[in-house]
Design a protein that fits this description.
It is a single chain. The protein has eleven helices and 37 strands. It is α+β, with helices and mostly antiparallel strands and 719 residues long. The chain folds into four domains: 37 residues, no CATH class; 118 residues, no CATH class; 187 residues, Rossmann fold, CATH 3.40.50.410; 232 residues, no CATH class. It has a 16-stranded mixed sheet with strand order 14-12-16-17-29-30-31-32-33-20-21-22-37-36-35-34. The longest helix has 20 residues. 38% of the residues are buried.
């Protein structure tokens, strides 16, 4: 409960860096504990996070990439709890395990599925041959089952894991499970195998063969009799992680804390890519899952340090969506990432390139994991020597090295070589919640789709509307002088294709000497689709909200691609957003940002229709009503009267008229600039708020709210 740091703790930090130093004197130590301090120094921290590429830091030829997004909807879980109920669990261990499981069961979500296996020399499955959905009744019955578990018999670890793996494999194969769900086994024991298969190497191979890389195994050991090396290797070989708790510790809170680390999966199949000709010696870059509260860290060396930037791409799956995030990171950032000269952050040569140390730390950790998983003595020797060499070079204490202290002066010497049976317990457990691995070289990221061609049909600027009629070989344009706060129906095809697009106006003062009382711009574009499933997008110049039953927040200043079965959103940072629906409808939204806006300028959006093939002939709205109709241009001579002195003369003056659905609309020739002024369009301009050009009047196109899906002209509905 004490939020203040211990005595002698110094925290130095800048906007992007923090360094914590704990250096208590003997007197300060005795104030904390009479016989000195024996415990963990724990630092809890967080950073500002969003669904972005993450934080990439570069210094002196090395880079480190931190990826920890938040505000993502959790993925459903299929989880099997495999619990030791042998005689050695009697007393406090089984009691605390039950208490933790009661709390964990209560935290399961309605979309999760689960089962429980208790094992000793016998294997007891709570629900035979199935996983059950989380409901109040099922949770109640599961708690009864756990409450009635009693310690007896030996420990059949191999049999329990085989039963759990078969149960989960059969459930995945025989049921139409949610494709986005994450499957896992949580295995808990306090002992060594005493029944059935007892040889560790055989248990490891049997477990790997049973799981077949289809889900992850997380292992928990309690007490001093547990085969920790076996549990650790089982987790490492099956994309999980392990925890070990002492018998006299508060196992219930530790178990709950461990479950909290893996209980909320947010992303799956995360892959981080950098150009092959730009980096080398990159640490793990493929991860089966990402859990809320954890952090993925990748580090490596730069090959070409003279380059201006490093291209980074992150691909992952979330819910029913495929996500691609990409950006270019500036390499020359010495002022941001160099800690030299920053008060409180510089204290020794070894810390000057903290990014290189992060790379070496992760690399040593990978070498230790590989050493543990290897059965080849020659390979183990190579891995041990490499890890030992790096540890001595970078002053890290590892299972292969030991730190020696000088009695007089209490100064430490650099780590020296020592051989101990290696374990990764305590070495960077909190850095990555999951053991990842390098992505197989055969896996290549999906190539970006060819850039979508934008048509002239658009609503942009103040707002200026342009309708392109390719078969007639001309364009028509008009203005809508709306009021700030008005929501305009741009495309209304909810009844047929299920698509609706609305745009909301904001106001700005009119330019000096202008004829308008104010200007208006589109500040929000809302795109709704209800086929084959409901989804909506709300787009502003700064951010995008995508909701298809699960809410996803994206920033407009980061390039990204989000793809589901019927919808794709592609963001080009600070430039445009392309929305593709069922591959037959495409809209492009341009982002207009002003670095130094004039009083009459506002950041705003432009809306362009790229592909209208999937919209029906009954489509309506200010733009939609023209997509499947043609107009004709008529030229006629009108008589005009001019007074010259006492004489009045009559002249014939040519006028142009559009014929639209039987209506005659007078037009004049104009030029417009679109695509941020990059292209000039010649068009026939209809005056007076598009009077007679559009069906009805301007007020007929006002929506009552951003999600209004008027199903036909003049009616109002809501999605």
């Amino acid at each position: 409960g004490d939020v203040s740091p211990p005595p002698s703790t110094v925290v130095g930090h800048t906007k992007t860096l923090a360094k914590v130093t704990f250096n208590p004197s003997v007197v300060e130590q005795t104030r904390i504990a009479r016989n000195g301090i024996l415990g963990d120094f724990i630092i809890r921290y967080d950073v500002n996070r969003e669904l972005s590429i993450g934080d990439v830091q570069i210094l002196n030829g090395y880079f480190v990439h931190y990826f920890a997004p938040t505000d993502l909807p959790p993925l459903p879980k299929n989880v099997v709890f495999v619990l030791d109920s042998s005689a050695s669990m009697v007393g406090t261990k089984l009691k605390q395990t039950k208490e933790a499981l009661f709390t964990i069961l209560q935290d399961l979500r309605p979309e999760d599925h689960f089962n429980i296996i208790g094992f000793s020399n016998r294997i007891k499955v709570w629900q035979q041959d199935r996983l059950v959905q989380v409901t109040p009744n099922n949770i109640r019955d599961a708690k009864k089952y756990i409450h009635n578990m009693s310690p007896t018999g030996g420990t059949n670890i191999n049999g329990a894991l085989q039963t759990g793996a078969k149960l989960l494999n059969d459930y995945i194969a025989q049921n139409d499970i949610d494709a986005r769900s994450v499957s896992l086994i949580i295995f808990l024991t306090d002992g060594r195998p005493t029944v059935g298969e007892t040889q560790s190497s055989k248990i490891l191979s049997n477990t790997k063969d049973a799981i077949r890389d289809k889900f992850c195994l997380f292992t928990i050991g309690i007490g001093n009799d547990v085969d920790h090396k076996l549990l650790e290797r089982m987790a490492l070989e099956n994309c999980g992680m392990t925890r070990h708790f002492q018998e006299d510790e508060d196992a219930a809170s530790h178990l709950k804390g461990f479950y909290d680390e893996i209980g909320t999966p947010l992303l799956s199949d995360i892959r981080v890519d950098y150009p092959e000709d730009s980096v080398e010696q990159v640490t793990q870059n493929f991860f089966p899952n990402y859990f809320n509260g954890s952090e993925i860290i990748i580090a490596g060396k730069l090959i070409n340090q003279t380059s201006d930037s490093l291209h980074v791409e992150v691909t992952a799956s979330n819910s029913k969506k495929y996500i691609l995030l990409k950006t270019d990171v500036a390499i020359d950032l010495p002022s941001r990432n160099d800690i030299r000269g920053v008060p409180g952050l510089e204290d020794g040569k070894g810390d000057k390139n903290y990014i290189e140390r992060a790379w070496s730390y992760l690399t040593i950790k990978e070498l230790l994991n590989s050493w543990l998983k290897s059965d080849n003595s020659q390979e183990k020797d190579y891995l041990m020597e490499k890890a030992k060499s790096m540890a001595l070079s970078y002053n890290f204490v590892t299972p292969f090295t030991v730190l020696k202290m000088r009695e007089a002066g209490l100064h430490s010497e650099p780590p020296q070589e020592e051989f101990i049976n290696p374990s990764t317990d305590g070495i960077g457990e909190k850095v990555q919640s999951l053991q990842g691995h390098k992505a197989p070289p055969g896996i290549r990221r999906q190539q970006d789709k060819q850039r979508i061609k934008i048509s002239k049909t658009s609503a942009d600027g103040d707002p200026h509307f342009v309708i392109d009629f390719p078969s007639s070989k001309f364009s028509v344009c008009f203005n809508i002088d709306g009021e700030p706060g008005d929501i305009l129906r741009l495309v209304s095809d909810h009844k047929e294709s299920g698509v609706t697009v609305n745009g909301q106006l904001i106001g700005a003062p009119a330019p000096p000497n202008g004829h308008k009382k104010h200007r208006t711009y589109f500040n929000t574009i809302t795109i709704l689709s209800n086929k084959p499933e409901r989804s909506y997008l709300e787009i502003t110049p700064k951010r995008i909200i995508l909701d298809d039953g699960e809410r996803l927040l994206l920033s407009c200043d980061r390039s990204a691609v989000v793809r589901s079965s019927s919808l794709e959103v592609s963001i080009s940072a600070n430039s445009n957003i392309t929305v593709t629906i069922r591959d037959t409808i495409s809209f492009v939204i341009l982002i207009h940002h002003y670095k130094k806006p004039a009083p009459y300028q506002r950041d705003h959006l432009g809306f362009y229709i790229s592909n209208s093939k999937g919209l029906s002939s009954d489509s309506h709205g200010l733009l939609g009503q023209f997509l499947n109709h043609e107009v004709k241009l008529q030229e006629s001579l009108n008589t005009s009267h001019q007074q010259a002195g006492q004489n009045q003369t009559e002249t014939l003056k040519p006028t142009n008229t559009l014929k639209v659905k039987g209506r005659l609309v007078p037009v004049v020739w104009k030029q417009r600039r679109i695509y941020n002024g990059q292209q000039e369009v010649e068009c026939w301009f209809a005056k007076n708020n598009a009077d007679k050009l559009i069906d009805g009047s301007y007020k007929d196109y006002l929506a009552s709210h951003p999600f209004d899906t008027g199903t036909s002209f003049g009616t109002i509905n809501s999605l």
